[in-house]
TrEMBL record:
Pfam families: Aminotran_3. Keywords: Aminotransferase, Pyridoxal phosphate, Transferase. This is Putrescine aminotransferase. Belongs to the class-III pyridoxal-phosphate-dependent aminotransferase family. InterPro entries: Aminotrans_3, Aminotrans_3_PPA_site, PyrdxlP-dep_Trfase, PyrdxlP-dep_Trfase_major, PyrdxlP-dep_Trfase_small. It comes from Cribrihabitans marinus. The keyword Transferase applies. GO terms for biological process: biotin biosynthetic process; gamma-aminobutyric acid metabolic process. It comes from the Bacteria. Its cofactor is pyridoxal 5'-phosphate. Transmembrane segments: none annotated. NCBIfam families: PRK06105.1, PRK07480.1. The keyword Cell wall biogenesis/degradation does not apply.
Amino acid sequence: HMPTAELQALDAAHHMHPFTANAELGEKGVRVITRAKGAYLTDSEGEEIFDAMSGLWCVNIGYGRQELADVAARQMRELPFYNTFFQTTHVPAIALADKLAELAPGDLNHVFFASGGSDANDTNIRMVRTYWAMKGQPDRKVIISRKNAYHGSTVASGSLGGMTAMHEQGGMPIPDIHHINQPNWWAEGGDTAPEDFGLARARELEEAILELGADRVAAFIGEPVQGAGGVIVPPETYWPEIQRICAKYDILLIADEVICGFGRTGNWFGSETMGIRPHIMTVAKGLSSGYAPIGASIVCDEVAEVISSGEFNHGYTYSGHPVAAAVALENLRILQEENILGHVRDVAAPYLAEAWATLVDHPLVGEAAICGMMASIALTPDKARRAKFASEPGTVGYLCREMCFANNLIMRHVGDRMIISPPLILDTGDIDEMMARIRKSLDETYEKLNE
Ligand code: PLP
């Protein structure tokens, strides 16, 4: 390939990066990623970078699996595209829907395909509203979500999400989306015990339902463990109370499993880890380990039955794309046959949890939260008071991310929280290496702050 500087210049001239202050990139110089294997990326200068984020929380089986490339090539030769609209279907979509119905808990037996998580959540909005309309309750349109949640970047899924920076772009949230507070005890719990705080935050759902009128509320959506909101592991009391409230008012429960699904929390789905029984699950990312763009809504019998009794006027050109579906199936085969979930539960997650807990000994770290292979630390100037930094929120987090980057470690920040979501296949040596880089980056951040 061209020399790095030339690639960077072309990138700066023509490529608009998502979620990025593009003008700043020129000064900093982007890194051009050229190859990847296991948990390591290689850039155009030959530097190896430990990817503690699995790309964007998605490369669950790790990079460089030849089997997925082979399956994609074979499928492209046989049937590169056909749709599943009207009265046609194809083998990869049939097989993947069947496999997902087998893996999903309870009676989540029906699959509607999308190209990723955002458009799968758009599907969910339309699906739950259609469901209630077809049941003769067309006023049930409101979907309750949570502040600081991320459910995607289309106008509708960005509205479901509770990211104010996105809403401030204008026109969002779209009507009939309501947000309650997130169960972030460390930042917002004050003197309340975590269990009581979990209950209080869940009961905000009931308050919202009563305020809006139960006959107007269609569904509640939440991630079992909030990911892009900062890997917020809710107190144990939270989800059972949410489940109880949804059942009491006959509200559909949507679990956004885009990050939590496919082994991230040690089970196939975060709903199993958190004891949630959703009516619909959103999946994407780990479904194909990011090797091909695909998402889906996995739907329970009752909702599917009602929707299927009429025409659901919705669908994407790439709903059930044969190449993406074939790649996803192969990814699920690898997850299953190589017992990667077992590896997470028995080896990687316990080992990481033990190492992660020691981070609270660092002077910058308040809380160290973890669930399976997703984890976060809250940076603080004063852990006893769970204090915030005097600087603009996110300044210290950004600095720490930069330190990580300089140490060839991809770790993200959400405000002043640092997060990881590494490939599930890490062995204990990999975890040691990742933790060493994290500690070094934290030390350097601390030194810099005290300069
Ligand atoms: N839902 C959750 C919980 C996510 O984390 C994301 C992406 O990060 C999405 C939905 C959107 O998925 P996509 O980027 O594939 O559209």
